[in-house]
């Protein structure tokens, strides 16, 4: 179990994490979704005892990470796959971890096997690894102490689609055996594939949270018309609350039938009316994080 309560982190005047609370339960893969700069890494670094919180608390298995005597055997952490020592081989990195945690050396081969790094690859220096190989090595390093809790920051970065599905199976098995997983990503489709529970963060705040299924269901109905002003009025008169979508039209928690009836009663012609699906979760994610996205500087040459 990971428990985060009213966590806030300020850097000077800037609030990177703003009163964040959540729980990650055993048996579940919790996806931490938000655009770059939303506060995911800062939250995870605080949980892993690397950054002090300004206020609030974070515990893993009921205690602060820094109070765990041999933390690698309780909590596996992968915060930055590229931060591994570039001059060491993959096998050396895992051997050092095994020795530090007092584990038998055979754990190294077991982990290499688990993440599909061949003996030849394990003998290469990490500076010659692709990002995907570094992620696999980082996951092996996080799992080597057989922890009950895993904290992974953007572990799917650099993995190809087959690698992402591989990771889903690995984490699914881990969670099915009672493990707790907190995993971050700035890409909705990665979280949709891998996670059971989703926490969405924008500008340091949790904007929505729930099971993947409930968030999909909660996406409700998508409706567009030839005249969105008239549609808005018609839905308001029927006590149907709406959220405007940037591309036009609305999303609402009402059913398609309720929306269709309200529009028909007002003589509004609809050009789209459908129930929640994956695309709607994407719309919701874009909507929820639109302000954050707009504040990101546009990279040179991106347009
Ligand atoms: P994410 O992981 O979601 O991309 P981060 O947690 O890395 O977001 O960053 C959240 C915010 O905190 C960003 O605005 C970032 O610039 C800021 N930030 C992160 N670390 C520091 C730091 N050490 N000093 C100052 N600001 C920081």
If you consult CATH, what is the topology of the largest domain? Rossmann fold
Q: What is the C-level CATH assignment of the largest domain?
A: Alpha Beta
Report the radius of gyration as a whole number of Å.
22 Å
What small molecules does this complex bind? adenosine-5'-diphosphate
Counted by DSSP, the helix tally is: 11
Element order, helices and strands? Answer: EEEHEEHHHHEHEHEEHEHEEHEH
The CATH superfamily of the largest domain bears the name: P-loop containing nucleotide triphosphate hydrolases
Folded structure, characterized:
The protein is α/β, with parallel strands linked by helices. Helix content is 38%, strand content 25%. The chain is built from eleven helices and 13 strands. It has a six-stranded mixed β-sheet, with helices on both faces. The protein has a four-stranded antiparallel β-sheet with strand order 11-12-10-13, with helices on one face. Helix 2 (90-101) packs across helix 3 and helix 3 crosses helix 5. Adenosine-5'-diphosphate binds next to strand 2 and helix 1. GO terms for molecular function: ATP binding; ATP hydrolysis activity.
């Amino acid at each position: 179990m990971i428990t985060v309560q009213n966590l806030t982190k300020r850097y000077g005047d800037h609030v990177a994490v703003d009163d964040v609370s959540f729980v990650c339960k055993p048996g579940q893969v919790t996806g931490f979704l938000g655009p770059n700069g939303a506060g995911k890494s800062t939250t995870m670094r605080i949980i892993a005892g690397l950054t002090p919180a300004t206020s609030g608390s974070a515990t893993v298995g009921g205690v602060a990470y820094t109070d765990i005597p041999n933390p690698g055997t309780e909590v596996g952490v992968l915060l930055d796959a590229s931060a591994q020592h570039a001059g060491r081989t993959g096998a050396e990195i895992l051997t050092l971890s095994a020795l530090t945690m007092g584990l038998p050396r055979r754990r190294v081969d077991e982990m290499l096997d688990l993440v599909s790094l061949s003996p030849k690859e394990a003998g290469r220096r990490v500076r010659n690894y692709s990002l995907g190989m570094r992620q696999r090595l980082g996951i092996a390093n996080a799992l080597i102490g057989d922890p009950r809790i895993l904290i992974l920051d953007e572990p799917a970065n650099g993995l190809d689609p087959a690698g992402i599905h591989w990771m889903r199976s690995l984490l699914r098995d881990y969670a099915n055996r009672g493990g707790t997983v907190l995993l971050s990503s700035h890409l909705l489709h990665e979280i949709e594939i891998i996670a059971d529970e989703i926490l969405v963060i924008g500008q340091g705040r949790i904007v929505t949270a729930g099971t993947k299924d409930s968030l999909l269901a909660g996406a409700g109905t998508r409706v567009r018309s030839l005249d969105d002003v008239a549609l808005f009025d018609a839905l308001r008169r029927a006590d149907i609350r709406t959220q405007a979508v940037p591309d036009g039209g609305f999303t609402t928690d009402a059913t398609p039938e309720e929306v269709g009836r309200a529009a028909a009663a007002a003589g509004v012609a609809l050009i789209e009316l459908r129930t929640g699906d994956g695309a709607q979760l994407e719309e919701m994610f874009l909507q929820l994080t639109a302000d954050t996205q707009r504040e990101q500087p546009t990279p040179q040459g991106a347009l």
